[in-house]
Amino acid sequence: NAGVTQTPKFRVLKTGQSMTLLCAQDMNHEYMYWYRQDPGMGLRLIHYSVGEGTTAKGEVPDGYNVSRLKKQNFLLGLESAAPSQTSVYFCASSDRQGRMSKTQYFGPGTRLLVL
Amino acid sequence: TQLLEQSPQFLSIQEGENLTVYCNSSSVFSSLQWYRQEPGEGPVLLVTVVTGGEVKKLKRLTFQFGDARKDSSLHITAAQPGDTGLYLCAGERATDSWGKLQFGAGTQVVVTP
Fold first, then answer.
1. What confidence tens digit (pLDDT) does each residue in B28-48 have?
2. In this predicted model, what pLDDT tens digit does every residue of B71-85 receive, in sequence order?
3. With an 8 Å Cβ cutoff, is A58 touching chain B?
4. Fewest C-beta atoms under 10 Å: which of A45, A91, B15, B85?
5. Class of the CATH-defined domain A4-114
6. In the prediction, which pLDDT does A96 show?
7. What percent of chain A has pLDDT over 70?
8. Interface contact A50, partner B, CB < 8 A
9. CA-based nearest residue in chain B for residue A42
10. Which chain A residues have a beta carbon less than 8 Å from that of B2?
11. Residue A2 touches partner B, C-beta closer than 8 Å
12. A103 burial class (0-12, 13-18, 19+ CB within 10 angstroms)?
């Protein structure tokens, strides 16, 4: 049981390049999330999904796209990377219990540097 | 502007001392969670509080949810070097979509031997 895994662990991009970050979870969770973490700003929600085939915008969605074609995978795409997207990206998943979510389980993070 | 304000931002103490971290907001939360994050890893949940005034204890850690469900605190008694990490509070508002959490900026705690 691997929990939440993220690929790649580290990447360097040049401005304007594109890339996809992959998140996979093996806990059969309904909800999945993508966050970015920057110094002094905590975790900010980029996009999230409440089930296979559904996605929704979070707090800072501009410049990112996502897809959830399979329940266990949540992809985050950067179409044209900018230096402002240099950050650590975390994927998380959770189940739900009534009106409240259960624990969010986080992956180990992807460090992205955009030059 | 963070919806959840954590204070202090940084705390350095010696082993054996006590510390308290605060998480405050003007919004009401249906639940509030505390996570700890170590370098190079993702956050890991410590506790969830859901009832105003609730107090939960996890060994030397005591968590309290404010009566009005707008604030929370984390108190560590007799801190140990293993308590070093970034402590994050996160709240789920009743007005938000299910499962969405608002995170504070975090409090970096360093406990030296």
1. 998 899 999 998 899 999 999
2. 999 999 999 999 999
3. yes
4. B15
5. mainly beta
6. 73
7. 94
8. yes
9. B105
10. 41-42
11. no
12. middle
pLDDT at B95: 78
Tell me which residue range forms the domain holding B40: 5-112
DSSP string, A28-57: --SEEEEEEEETTTEEEEEEEEEETTEEEE
For residue A72, the distance in angstroms to the closest alpha carbon of chain B comes to: 17
> What pLDDT, on a 0 to 100 scale, did the predictor assign at position B53?
94
Quick check: A41 pLDDT over 90? no
CB contacts of A96 in chain B (<8 Å) are 98-99
How much of chain B, in percent, has pLDDT values that exceed 70? 96
Asked whether residue B90 carries a pLDDT value surpassing 80, the answer given is yes
What CATH number does the domain containing B86 carry? Answer: 2.60.40.10
3 state DSSP class of A83: helix
Instruction: Tell me what the mean pLDDT of segment B3-15 comes to.
Output: 95
The number of domains in chain B is: 1
- Cβ–Cβ < 8 Å for A23, A105: no
Which of B88, B98, B106 faces A99 most closely, judged by CB atoms? B98
The Cα-based distances of B69 to B24, B61, B77 in angstroms read 10, 19, 24
On whether any CB of chain A is under 8 Å from the CB of B46, the answer is no
Residue A74: its chain B contacts at CB < 8 A?
Answer: none
Is residue A85 helix, strand or coil?
Answer: helix
What is residue A1's predicted lDDT score, i.e. its pLDDT? 65
> How far is residue B25's CA from residue A66's CA, in Å, rounded to a whole number?
30
Nearest to B42 among A99, A101, A108 (CB): A108
Tell whether B39 lies on the interface with A, counting CB pairs under 8 A.
Answer: no
